[in-house]
Amino acid sequence: MFLSVIIPAINEEECIAAAVNNARRARNVEVLVADGGSKDATVPVAREAGAKVLVTRTGRAFQMNEGAEAASGDALLFLHADTRLPSGYEAHVRRILDRPGVAAGAFRLGIRASGVSLRLVELVANLRSRCLQLPYGDQAIFVGRRRFQIVGGFPELPIMEDFALMKRLSKLGRVALAPVAVSTSGRRWVRMGVWRTTWINQMMVAAYVLGVPPERIQHWYRRDRGI
After folding, report:
1. Residue 157 CB contacts under 8 Å (≥ 6 apart), including other chains
2. Its pTM surpasses 0.85
């Protein structure tokens, strides 16, 4: 099984090289960076690190779909630029996707920041992922190319695209959780506060489930982040 790691990025020059180098420490893997119009040095830095770079229009869902279209792999792994994969991650991906009845998978969540409150966030996220089969994008979602195509890829929404994809994939089979964790940056939680960030995330999910238009949810999210 050849694996394609797809990293959507915009203005990530400070961490994109580390993300690419981390993902390339594996066998039978290619790394693609789908850049959404960065104004900094993300594109040349990613190329220098050894990634294939696509320049697309802005929008994480669109960027990831474009990356998937250009990918050569039998399996696709979608990686946030500030998330690092565990050693031997490719073996976990292949093992999980080879299981009968499994439609997709993800890793356990680990956050690169200290504090009891963040350990609680990890615990709740991992319980949600295991019990509800709803991992989020910062857990490095992976799926076989064929199943990704069957569900039509990521819905091209301005926000909540990872949640929507998982709901689609769960209709095809089980969403499995790897026994090891990714390490994702704690910058969002540190900048906005742990409980405020968690509250905003849960309110976005609730709003989406209740049928609030994603464009409105994105507006609320940007307003709360001061964007």
Report:
1. 61, 164, 214
2. yes
